[in-house]
């Protein structure tokens, strides 16, 4: 039997049994989660079956397998309790570090995206992730899909929208498995603004995402692009504080309907272009005054701003009318993560603008940064002479707690 035939049988079985509504409060089980995912997508006008059947099947089976583990864990816990272990779950010995910049790489996604920023996409499992956290003393982490997010099929809206939904269901499942330790930033299918609004709502309100991850550019459009304004407007209007995590992407230029990688050097874009990408998109968000106008939105900025701090005066001195107001936003609604080798020297450039140290967060970039970078980065924060012990504790934990508040897992 051909895969497609097997697949359509598989699909029709699931489609015929749609009846449930899947919400964060629901106990979704491995046996019914697939139905719920498909019917919720349908309700939002998303055709998950637009995706390649092989990908769709791998994704559904990985998601079901994770929910299977959620059930097993719950059963084990019940048994422990009924056996008289009334002490609750034993708390392993770890510190309170919160990692705000870290990634999930479902195997089915790695197959679609074998390279990231010109480097091989790392191999990852949720179990390895938790082991890494335990070894590094990290208690809680906010995970996200890295670049290119759902932007894997340039120009193909249906596929991009379906992929975004699958990625969010997948990452939400990992968070369910380690509730209390993992939260996530949801991907959105920009540049398709209306679909991105619908996905952000679903992920935040139904799946419990702590915020959204936006790429520096989506199919060549930087975040201040006029067509994205309704997205920021809608997010801003969701009520309460909303969090946007900005992640660098490979730069592209559009030529007709073709996207052309715009790396002018021979080096992989992840190695250095990502820093310029962060600067470009923050410049765009600032000069369009997107960050000024939508005041409920807070931004998590990777790599203490990449190349942006070096460019701030250059950019803003030419627009004196928004100089002070922009620095004010960088000091209150921008939160700068430490991912990468940023605390040897680079962070001093950001602090030179008077950004309060209470806006600094800790991030590892696991598993994309090589292990020596992750451990070295943590050591560099600990060894830095720019911060007092109390300020370091705040970088590792309190500042993130202030940003996320009740959204913290
Ligand atoms: C899945 O089934 C369980 C019972 O087996 C039920 O409690 C739960 O509400 C269902 N969840 C969904 C999303 O249908
Ligand atoms: C923000 O508001 C200013 C007017 O105060 C306006 O000039 C600008 O176009 C607005 N930008 C966005 C992205 O809403």
What this model shows, in words?
This protein has 409 residues and is an alpha/beta fold. The chain folds into two domains: 3-86; 97-407, Alpha-Beta Barrel (TIM Barrel). Helices cover 46% and strands 14% of the residues. The chain is built from 15 helices and 14 strands. It has helices spanning 3-16, 30-43, 53-82, 107-112, 126-136, 157-177, 193-206, 229-236, 273-287, 290-293, 308-316, 323-330, 347-351, 371-383, 389-404, and strands spanning 97-103, 115-116, 119-120, 138-144, 182-187, 211-215, 217-218, 221-222, 242-247, 252-255, 258-261, 297-301, 334-337, 360-361. It has an eight-stranded parallel sheet with strand order 1-4-5-6-9-12-13-14. Strands 2-3 form a two-stranded antiparallel ribbon. Strands 7-8 form a two-stranded antiparallel sheet. Helix 2 (30-43) packs across helix 3 and helix 9 runs parallel beside helix 11. The model is unreliable at 1-27 and 87-93 (pLDDT under 50). The site of one 2-acetamido-2-deoxy-beta-D-glucopyranose (NAG) has 8 residues, from helix 2.
Summarize the structure.
The protein has helices spanning 3-16, 30-43, 53-82, 107-112, 126-136, 157-177, 193-206, 229-236, 273-287, 290-293, 308-316, 323-330, 347-351, 371-383, 389-404, and strands at residues 97-103, 115-116, 119-120, 138-144, 182-187, 211-215, 217-218, 221-222, 242-247, 252-255, 258-261, 297-301, 334-337, 360-361. Strand 13 (334-337), helix 13 and strand 14 (360-361) form a beta-alpha-beta unit.
